[in-house]
Design a protein that fits this description.
- The protein is mainly alpha-helical.
- The chain is built from six helices and no strands.
- Helix 3 runs antiparallel to helix 4 (73-93).
Length: 181
């Protein structure tokens, strides 16, 4: 990965960590995970086969450092790393071969599904590791699915903005009329 892209990925993860730290935990210490939005965008625009695992591990560590869930550090690392692998390969196998609005909407769908997967892995590992008496279906419906929808909206807003910025800085070179990179 070239230095410019590495710096941008670092900034994305740092912004994600700050957002993850300042959003308060409101349901048993759990909170929406806005770090996933920036992780997904970093994977869509700047990750390659040599760097995606390091990006996922860094996101997991930053998520563990900023979690408000008691004993949520290990589940955070597990969920971010696993989600990174799934989202990166879903993007590479499906969305990277598309162009324009089809690619845009595919990335939105991957963002929704990636957040849903991340939440399921986090809740599952939290319940298993803590032997917690929490109800998986209740927490999944009350917290994970609304967060997945919110994250999808955030990606929908930020995706075209990042394309414009990346084109102006010549990180992405493509047809300016399409949402492709």
């Amino acid at each position: 990965m070239e230095l410019k892209k590495l710096i941008i990925v670092g900034l994305f993860l740092a912004i994600g960590a700050v957002l993850h730290a300042i959003v308060p935990g409101f349901f048993f210490g759990m909170k929406p995970d806005l770090m996933l939005v920036l992780l997904f965008l970093a994977l869509y625009f700047f990750a390659d086969y040599k760097s995606f695992l390091a990006i996922g591990l860094a996101a997991g560590i930053l998520g563990a450092l900023t979690t408000s869930m008691p004993a949520g550090q290990i589940p955070s690392v597990i969920d971010k790393f696993t989600t990174t692998v799934a989202v990166f390969f879903a993007y590479q196998l499906i969305a990277s071969k598309m162009a324009g609005k089809t690619k845009y909407f595919t990335c939105l769908a991957i963002s929704f599904l990636g957040t849903a997967l991340s939440g399921a892995i986090f809740l599952g590992s939290m319940i298993l590791l803590m032997n917690a008496p929490l109800s998986f279906p209740t927490l999944y419906l009350a917290l994970v699915l609304p967060t997945a929808a919110f994250n999808m909206v955030c990606v929908a807003i930020l995706y075209p903005i990042i394309i414009r910025i990346a084109r102006r800085s010549q990180l992405i070179q493509s047809n300016p009329k399409s949402l492709t990179h």
